[in-house]
Specification:
Elements: E1 7-9, E2 15-17, E3 20-22, H1 28-41, E4 45-47, H2 55-65, E5 73-78, H3 86-97, E6 102-107, H4 114-129, E7 133-139, H5 143-153, E8 159-163, H6 171-179, E9 183-187, H7 199-208, H8 212-222, E10 226-227, H9 234-241, H10 250-257
Parallel strand pairs: 3-4, 4-5, 5-6, 6-7, 7-8, 8-9, 9-10
Antiparallel strand pairs: 1-2
Helix pairs in contact: 1-2, 1-9, 2-3, 4-5, 7-8
Amino acid sequence: MSQINARMDLSDGHSIPTIGFGCYDGYGEEMVRAVRTAAETGYRYFDSAERYRNENEVGKGLAESGVRREDLYILSKIWPSSFGQTEEAFDQTRRDLGTDYLDAYLIHWPGQDTAARLKTYEKMMDLRSAGKIRSLGVSNFLPEQMEEIKDEFGEYPVIHEMECHPSYGQRELIFRCRARKMQPIAYSPINRSVDLDNETIRRLAEKYGRTPAQIVLRWHLEHSVIPIPKSVHENRIRENFDVYHFELDVPDIIAIDELEAGARSGKDPRTFPEI
């Protein structure tokens, strides 16, 4: 996987770029500028969410970039507190992002109400049938919650976004996703920069003449996991995208695999959010 703007096929017949731009934790003109810079750099997949409270800025940045809508991949997510107003939440997201449709719409967190979660997925299926959403997905789901969707609707979501980085590689969950033809997407792909100080990562960065972040992002790509790094700094935005002109040797991929520590840095979906 060395081609810039390469895409991965999804099991529903659509495809998704192999790296995305995470839109979490940026606001105002700073976020507009970051999104515009990312689009100008070459990012085409933008990963947003209702909960981020910045979709208007994301939409503005995309509009200012001049990139055609058909060349973009826009993904957003619904928060559990909106489960009872799925269509309204979707329409607000769509308006804020300045688009008639979403390439993918995900349930952000499973929450604690199974019936409400399944009803939301059913509404998302209706929006897909209406041509407003192309692909459906989930985020932070437990294996049994993936099976609930299959049992209820006869299909698995085609995307599963999860915390994933060298310290928390999610090998078992990714294996389950592969078996169910669900594409894994990694948020916090560099573990909030924690993994970048690891001795192994730094040694490999020196070996390949790359930054530690580029080594970790390339590691995700070697596993066919889509990373969505985030930054509002122009140099880092560009650096994070520059991962297509080298490949990691197999022993080096294994060395990073062995950094697995079961160290989740984000929330636990078994208890969060409490709704």
